[in-house]
Amino acid sequence: MDVNVTAGEQFLEQKNYAAAYEKFLQAYVSKKSMRTNHLLFTAAFAGKQYADAYAIAADYLAEYIADDALFSKYLKAGVMAGKNINVVQLLILLTPYMTSAEKEACQQVVATTLTRYQQEHPEIKKKWQYLGAYSVFEQRDLFAMAHALPTADFIAYSRQWLVDSNVHPILRASIVDDLRQLGVTEEVALINLNQEQVTVVPAQLPAVEQTEIGEKVLASLQTTANEALVGEVRLRLQIMYPFVFKTLTSEQIQMIAMAPLTTTVPSENKLLQRLEAALQEWVV
């Protein structure tokens, strides 16, 4: 048996969770397995390192989902890590494969844990409606923190953020995608990249990668080893989606999305200028 695992288990019995975590981490880095992952997750969870526990379990998420007890603990870790919205989105994805009893049990775990999270983090009740008043980097941090909100609150604030032209375009695109994953069936208004107020029903949108143009563009990058470049192209598509997809041809969209790889895009293209400005603000 791995000496780090043995030592980690001893520390775990002694409730020295920080020391146990370090030993299990060494064992996991040395040889990844579901067993060492679970030990590492257990130490992180017991030590209230919920964000670490949530991230660790992602390596073997299918195994956690398949085990009711482990999945319940995973849901708790996610909510306590401030990822309530992400947890709810996952449950929505899994709903078709769950029995009514399983669904109810998971919802109860999330609701109970969220109550505990709110009690331990009263700052979560802060006013979020002024997201656009902050700098881009502060907006990014605040938006990430907002994923700890109850679903109804997150959706309500999202409606305000989407019509605030001072909220960064990339965040507005992310909000639309979050609402899509939450299955929001009501029409929502938002300001698009062209600074036009439009409406959309998030639940009716496929993921950008599942659209015809999205599949085409991303498929053309399958031989590209530069992950950062692929990520930028995907981000460009997300910013333009879904409204630009309705007003431009697939060739025009592909040209703008693939701009980092070509010199054929006219520099006077207004949409491209707005997109480049948004990306520049995001990384500076």
UniProtKB/TrEMBL annotation:
Protein name: TPR repeat-containing protein
Organism of origin: Ligilactobacillus saerimneri 30a
